[in-house]
DNA sequence: TATGAATGAGTATTCATTCAT
DNA sequence: GATGAATGAATACTCATTCAT
């Protein structure tokens, strides 16, 4: 009967946190996040029990946003190469479109405040990507390795690519394309 | 302020900082570092003007240690592939041998407290690596890209490889070897 | 604001407050009291304007409960000694039966948040006790003192007795009896 | 070689705490205590790890001061009655001389923040008091009870006496004397 | 130079109370 | 009236840095 909790407010806090953390690191005060989100200091804690909880939920939210973009329009029936390209482009495009989210995700990934649980959930295989990786690597030099390793290479190489695009936005397309070729060669050639 | 007396103390602080930051993140108190280094709280500040200075010098020290290992015994006259393998192995071996240093370097790399200057110095081309990269990429899919991009791929892929070795130390050699093949295919194949 | 609807709810809050304050002290949050009483946080404030009001009303309620038990079946026509014993037993029995109430009353008695008014009302003479004290002390060493002083001794000695009974419940009766003899000697002997 | 910790400062904090807690209860802010003690907010925590530690140490300090006064000039060879009178007077005089300390001690005695350990140490028998109580009660109505119970009666009755002296300081002596007679009768008469 | 006590700005979190539903 | 989300002042404690010894 009382005022219901607002999903909007929760999202506003998450977005504000992304901005603030991107600017000042995860040691930025919760008060600043609250102000930027347009809520009172105390309100932040009705949506997130503690700063650590906020950090973990933000991490999962960012990971989830990235996945969504990788899966959006995923061509399940195309060749492994085309599916790989789709996933690659999704990753790179997400990173380019969300520089703050990417920065924060990078910080959270190496933070001691993200629990093992969050990391596990955040890195779990998803959609058809796992399967695509398996197909792609089947005859390549990595054929003996775990798909997760190939997935890690995808992330690592995409990150490197994004950071170069950020420095030279005008060459975004060449970087994205060349990065993909490098990735594809890395995992599929023998 | 003149050069501080004891180079030993300076190193002790740097080592202590590595351990403490690896355990608790870079927000760990300087007092704890001082204690672990066996010096008084105030003494830390005669060796490093401020915590930020310590952070930056630690970053450069770590980067420098990594380079040393990549260059140690570098086969300047061998084939590009062999030189690449040497650099790759140097990176991976350093990471495996210095898990704390690697963890801290990862944190510092994404920290707002590391200055642009430090990042530039820390990522500058060195030894014969730049040249090796140029040769290796000459005919590959990355031929149009900057060598720095290829260097970034080396780091990124080596990091991914190290983190998998950390999870499965017994398969260190397969990971290191397969990782290198993937890297080599990524940059040299067309 | 008119009289709140439910006397039951008011009592539930008072009881919950007793439990919670006994466990955590009077600095326990009102939210916890509300939860234990089975009402919403805000509802508590329709029954008690503020936490201070709650504290004061609880104090008076507890005092009142104690009095009731001291007066229940009070033998107005018996000897002073018997009347004194009745009052004494009433006090001790109440304390033993209501350990939480006793604990909270002790805290409130020394709290700055209980007003002078409440203290006055809570310590006012009542029933035939005042008169009994007067008779009992008439020939004793305290004959020159105020009855209130004797009343204070009764409370003090009964409290001490109760706390020993709490530690050794099996010797409740000896403690209660010996305590009364000590009290009676204290006030009646010359 | 650095500035040594100052016993004076520690005492200043303890005294300030006594004043502030007497005025506002133990929920008074540590910042106010620090200010009143003339030290920085943080300094309080170099002398007392936490507010709870301060509370416990203050409790023990107050108890210890009370004991000192009870034992000062204690007539070990006098009659039990004279020794009892000395202890009684010591208690009452301490209470009258330290109204703030007494008030705070009363609050701490019923506080959940005082550990069992502190309570045990603070109530341990001391000097020749225990022995005196034993002698005095040997033939009285309490002969079967523990000396600790008699000690508790002494405290309880002395407290009641002090509080009446506080209301009527001019009748301090009569109250003190009559209170003692009452106490003596309570424990020694059969 | 080395030490560690002193400083006080900074911060996560709590909580009585208000008020939209 | 009942609910519980919203508020923001209040507060214990931390910590980089300074400075007396």
Automatic annotation (TrEMBL), chains A, B, C, D:
It comes from the Bacteria. It holds the Pfam family TetR_N. Residues 29-48 bind DNA. InterPro entries: Homeodomain-like_sf, HTH-type_TetR-like_transc_reg, HTH_TetR, Tet_transcr_reg_TetR-rel_C_sf. Residues 7-66 form the HTH tetR-type domain. The keyword Metal-binding does not apply. GO terms for molecular function: DNA binding. The keyword Oxidoreductase does not apply. SUPFAM superfamilies: Homeodomain-like, Tetracyclin repressor-like, C-terminal domain. Keywords: DNA-binding. PANTHER family: HTH-TYPE TRANSCRIPTIONAL REGULATOR RUTR, REGULATORY PROTEIN. This is TetR family transcriptional regulator.
């Amino acid at each position: 009967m009382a005022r219901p909790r607002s999903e909007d407010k929760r999202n506003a806090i998450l977005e504000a946190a992304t901005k603030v953390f991107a600017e000042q690191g995860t040691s930025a005060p919760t008060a600043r996040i609250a102000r930027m989100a347009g809520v009172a200091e105390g309100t932040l804690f009705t949506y997130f029990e503690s700063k650590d909880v906020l950090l973990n939920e933000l991490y999962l939210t960012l990971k989830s946003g990235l996945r969504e973009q990788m899966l959006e329009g995923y061509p399940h029936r195309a060749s492994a190469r085309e599916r790989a390209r789709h996933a690659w482009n999704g990753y790179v495009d997400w990173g380019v479109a969300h520089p703050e989210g990417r920065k924060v995700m990078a910080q959270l990934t190496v933070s001691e405040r993200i629990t093992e649980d969050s990391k596990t959930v955040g890195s779990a295989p998803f959609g058809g990507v796992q399967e695509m990786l398996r197909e792609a690597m089947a005859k390549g030099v990595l054929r003996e390795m775990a798909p997760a390793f190939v997935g890690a290479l995808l992330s690592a190489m995409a990150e490197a690519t994004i950071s170069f695009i950020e420095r030279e936005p005008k060459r975004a397309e060449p970087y994205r394309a060349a990065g993909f070729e490098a990735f594809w060669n890395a995992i599929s050639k023998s």
